[in-house]
Every structure is written in C-alpha cells, then in structure tokens.
Amino acid sequence: MYDIVIIGAGVSGAATARELSRFRARICVIERGEDVCCGTSKANSGIVHAGFDAPEGSLMARLNVRGNQMMEVLSRELDFPFRRNGALVVCRDEQMLPALETLRQRGVQNGVTGLCILNREEVHSMEPALADDVCGALFAPASGIVCPFELNIAMAENAAVNGVEFHMNTEAEDIRRTEDGYEVLTNRGPLRTKCVVNAAGVYADRFHNMVSETPLHITPRRGEYCLLDKTTGSLVSHTIFPLPDRDGKGILVTPTVHGNLLTGPTAEDIPDKEGVCTTAEGLSRVMERAALHVKGIPFREVITSFAGLRACEDGHDFVIGEPADAPGFVDCAGIASPGLSASPAIGEMISELLRKRLNLEPNPEFIPYRKGSPRLSSLPFEERNRLIRGNPAYGNIICRCEEVSEGEIIDAIRRPLGARSLDGVKRRVRAGMGRCQGGFCSPKVMEILARELRTGMDEITKAGPGSAVLKGRNMEWL
Q1: What contacts 433, CB < 8 A, 6 or more positions away?
Q2: DSSP 8-state symbol, 54
Q3: Residue 332, Cβ density class (10 Å: 0-12 exposed, 13-18 middle, ≥19 buried)
Q4: pLDDT band of 471, cuts 50, 70, 90
Q5: In this structure, are 124 and 228 located in the same domain?
Q6: Which helix (H) or strand (E) holds 59?
Q7: In what order do the strands lie in the sheet with 47-48?
C-alpha cells in the first residue's frame, strides 16, 4: 500500500517525486519506458522561458515564472548545467513593433523582471547574425537554457536517494476506485495507493477519464527540430524567437548548454500519441523559418533531427489539481510549453497539495544535494590528470566526438537509476550524441554495458524492450 503513486517519470513526475521526498511517505513512480525522460521531456528545446508569453492570470504563467526563479538554485543543488543566456523576440516588420510592447506588458503583469525593447541598432549589436531586416526586439534577460535530460535525471536520482521507488517498463493500464484510495493496474500487477499523481504527458487525459465524469482532452502537438554540430554553436549567444502566433512561440534558434545550435520546433496537431517521426516537410519548414530571422545558419552541419510531442489541453492551460469527483487523484495534465521551465514549480505545487491532504510530516533525513558524473572534457588539465591517476578508466576515451571516457560511462551505469541501454548512457554522459551519432563508439559502449550489467551483448538494447541492437547466433549488426 503506497501513499502516492506517480504515473510518469518525465520532468513533472520527477519534480513531484523529488518535492514529495521531503516528507515521510511511501511513494513510487511508474514509467512505461525503460528509463526516466523517455517521453515528452526528452524531445524539447531545453529553454527555461522567462514567462512573458503565457496569458496573464493563467496557471501556466504563474508556474513558468516561479519555475524560472527556482532553476538557478536547483541547478546548484542537483549539479546540472543551466545558463541564463537571455532571449530575444525579434520583429522584422516595423508595423508589428507595437506587438513587442504588448508582450512586454504581459510579461510585467506575469512578474517577469528586466524586460526591455531594443531598437534596430541595439539588437544587431547584441546579435550580429540576425537577419538584416530585423528592426527591433524584446529582450528577456531572465530566459535561460538547460539540458532537459540532465534536469530530469537529476531530479529523479535525488528522489530515489531520498526513498522514492521507481519502477521502469511498468505501464499503467487501468485505475479503479477503492475504499481507501485507488488501485492502479499495471502490466506488472496491481498497485494500491491512497493518492495518484497523473503526470502521464499526452496520455494524461486517458487516466483522468478513468476516474472522473468531467472529460479531459489532450491533443498531441508534434514539434520537429534540427540539431547542428558544435562548430556552429557560437552563431548566436541568445535564444532567438520570432513574434509568436496562435500555434505557439514559433521556430527558434538557440545555443545549447553543450555548445550545439538548435532550431525548431514546428507545431502540428496530430491524432497519434506516438507520432514522433520527423518529416521532410517539417524539417524543411524548420530550416526555412529559422533562416528568416538568423542569417548564415550552416544547415549542412546538421548532425541529427528529432521530433517531440507537446500535451496540449483544450483550454490551453496547465491542469493541476483534484477533479471534484475524484479526491486523491491529482492531475498534472496539459503540460505543454513552458512545462520544462515550470517543472520545479509544478512539483512544489503538487507536493504542497498532497502534504495537506495526507497530513505528511517532514522527512528529517531528506538530502537536497546530488553530485553529477565527472565530465572529463570540462575539467581543468590538472584536475583531469588527478582523476585519471585515481581511476585509469577515465583515461580511456570511448566517444571521441564528445570526449567521453570509460569511467564516465561506468559511473552512468552504476548511479541511482543507472543507464541500462545505449540511449540511457547517451542521455547521462553524451556518448553517441556528437557528430558521428554513435557510429564509432556504440560497440564499445555496448561492451561496457554488457560487462557492468553482467549480460550478453545480444541483451543490450538501444532504448529498452523491442530495440535489441544485435540479432542471431552470430550477433549480426541490424
């Protein structure tokens, strides 16, 4: 019997688990994927939005601004990369300049600080690569960039260290009301619990509608991206947005915390909740639209493309709280952009709701800190040598593109909620995320996984069940 079962181990579920681990409670997170950060949270822009875009008075606006304010402290506590690089919303038509002021005023109403309007000379001085016809911009210095994988994994690891159970490859199939709460039926058996947190991304409407007569509907909105090599990462230093339209914030151009350049996303409503394929049309649109406000983007340097789904609720706001007819069932639904930015505040809000409902007591053994894996490529020369002298595995480079050592990969596997697949290693230490996209290092990473997990090479997968890399008695490459 659990106090709380959380469905979904994306950023919202992980943030909620981490905040709830501050209290004495028996908590588990179930995730249908083989790892945390396998759904919406793994495929987004990595932008920590300032909060000027969300409608005034909305829950989305309030939690965006609060999450942004929390991110800097959180990054220090949990040791993940975060940088306030600032954002520019650029205007290419002088007749549209008043729209920048409208955005600024909305941001002020939402509590965003530091917003200002820049003229043509000022904005081109800040970003020389902007298109020549850019005539002004809204500058939001509070905006930042983060690695979505590392944020998600850091919160989940910290929750696990503080006693939260995580069950991967565990899919919720049905939810039933019981006298003392709920029974969550999974592919691995039933779980009884007093309360449920529904953080299931694009599937949150499905679980909500199992327990409530008030229907919830979520539309998956596909966003396609192009990721460019690190040689292009300095083209812009701020996150560059066009003026937003009814479909969202538009196609942005931004550096990443690891030095790449990212462009996207598109915004296409689709019926398929698994529709994460990229399309020729969508990627062409990304390149065409990005080139309208930043010149000279070297798209020949694209090293990968990907698509993610945003969970868009019909009311265009976050849905957080208990339905009137389902006490103890807490929705965390419709968490589209700026969901990543708001995630720490979402966790804080849900934790406080359940603390009051269950009358939870503080956990005196709560540990707020987590130390990430050593990153050889970012260490000073002497510190790098000291690390290698202490453990020679750190001197054996496995991924040459990202300079990832054997020691870092071993650490990724042995950590709390450690990697169990090629993608799990990639999300934690970036082996396979460079220019060759794992073309050279994948066999070596597989060998390390097989050795550490004490299993055969034919059992190693790309991303969990159904994605084996080798097949047949001769272990042929697929």
Answers
A1: 258, 399, 401, 402, 426
A2: S
A3: buried
A4: confident
A5: yes
A6: helix 59-78
A7: 47-48, 144-146, 82-83
Average pLDDT, the chain: 96
User: What pTM, to 2 d.p., does this model score?
Assistant: 0.95
Please state the domain count of the chain: 2
Give the pair of three-digit tokens for residue 134: 């850019």
Among residues 332, 418, 272, the alpha carbon closest in space to that of 11 is found at: 332
Last residue of a domain, one of 309, 326, 355: 309
Is 178 inside a domain boundary? Answer: no
d(CA 277, CA 447): 29
Range of the domain at 469: 376-477
Shared domain for 285 and 389, answered yes or no, is no
Known catalytic residue at 49: yes
Q: Assess whether 231 and 102 both reside in one domain.
A: yes
Give the containing element (helix H, strand E) for 321: strand 319-321
Whole-number CA gyration radius for the chain: 22
Which of these is catalytic: 49, 238, 258, 293?
49
Q: In a 3-state reduction of DSSP, which class is residue 385? A: helix
Determine whether 364 is exposed, middle or buried from the number of CB atoms within 10 Å of its CB (0-12, 13-18, 19+). exposed
